[in-house]
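Name: Putative permease
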Amino acid sequence: MTEIFWGFILRFLQALTSAGPTILVGLIVAGVLEKLCGYEQTRRVFGGKGVKSLIIAWAWGMLLPVCSVGVIPILRVMRRSGLSGGTILAFALSAPIFNPISLLYGLTLSRPFVIVAFAACSLVVVTSVGLLWDWWFPDQQQLREPEATPAPGLKRMAAVGMTALRELTGPSLVFILIGLGCSALLAAILPHGSLQRSMNADNPWAPVTMLGVSIPIYATPMLAMSQLGSMFQHGNSTGASLVLLVFGTGLSVGTLAWITTNYGWARSAVWLALMSSSVLLLAYIVDKPLYPSDVEAADHTHAFDIYTSPFTGALVDPVDEMRMRLINSIQPYEWRVVYLLAGLLAVGLVLRRFNRAGAIDRWLQQQPETSGKSLDVAIPAPVLGGIAIVALIGFSIAGCYIYYPPPSVVFEELEQVRVGAIYAARHGEVRQAEHHIALWDEWSRKLEVGVYLRTFAVRDFQAMKGRILREKLELLRHEIEDGDRAAVDAMLREVQQSQSRWQQAFTPTTAAQRS
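Structure predicted for Putative permease:
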């Protein structure tokens, strides 16, 4: 029981820190939609109803950087705006699957056609199921009277913040905690490494098994993309990878709880059954055609260890073990987001306590008295809402260039990771070595995306050197696990040779000579 308790705490904190940034985005978008766009404009943004609204909801979901729990505040505003259930559920599932950063990362994992095909599959699923849902269950709109428009200027911005704080301290928080908690509980109960062989390509039940695992788990778009890369690299089931992307990334128990609360058990069960059967059908259709023919299938993968117990045996010092694992798995900047959320939660609770009668909301809606000429330009709130959403998408795209830096920055950051991996491998520190090898693999993929963003091309020679390096890193991981010192030293030499050749391929002078 000790391992289950501490495993739950560790997995919950890991999920919370990963979800923090996208939860913040979801709160901001919810505030913008409700206080700047308003209910009527929100309906226009999502195209009203019908096939058009489903496609628009999918497209907006592809652009906004939210996750399967960060999307919940937005769903609540969409529901209050009177959008159809099919449109809301289409956005609920598509928004967490892709965003500009994860989509670019995904293009480095396999043939670009595979990721494009997965995106097309998600569009087919959410639109077809959404149409059936709206046809079977019409008149689901929850139309509300439009709220008074906040006063222009700082009051309008404060109203957006008030909505975000209200969502953070209200039902959204409950559903977010349900989603993260259920994922952590599943991970604490499943034995460590129990999923390593369950997704092999020769297992016909791999997509079904993935369906059972992926619904309760929580995965950010970037985590799911990295796991897809590991599945492609190990020759795992392509159909299972599609299921992981759609359900593991797009859905959480928290989202299901919100859907059930708003639409009832029967309708929610119908929607989940339609989604599951559609995704499984597509998974088996694309499993063989999209399978990477140039990859030798491995007998296991570590991609899903994050969804199982983090501990392999009895804990001698649980507190110290937790501290070390949190240091290795959570970056310092991720903690800052958690602290920010905690601060906002405290402020929101105080405002809830002193704003029960709605005095603050009435003050924010009071229009200023104007006298004489003014240089201020009164911009309609819907226009500001549209500008805010476009700006958020712009920041998301700009974030791609920050998240994927130029080669010079990657090589500088990678040097520290490389030294850490080599030191840990030579001294038999398995956990530290695995941590640094995973970072090494991630930086190699970031480099390819960064080069593509700046030059709009990654040559086949460069991509090949990257694949060879990552294959050598995976072999190094296996040798470290086996504990054969001579084999580890030999593989370290091969990895460093591959690293040198890979780096030369992306050095401007060498790249120009190869062209």
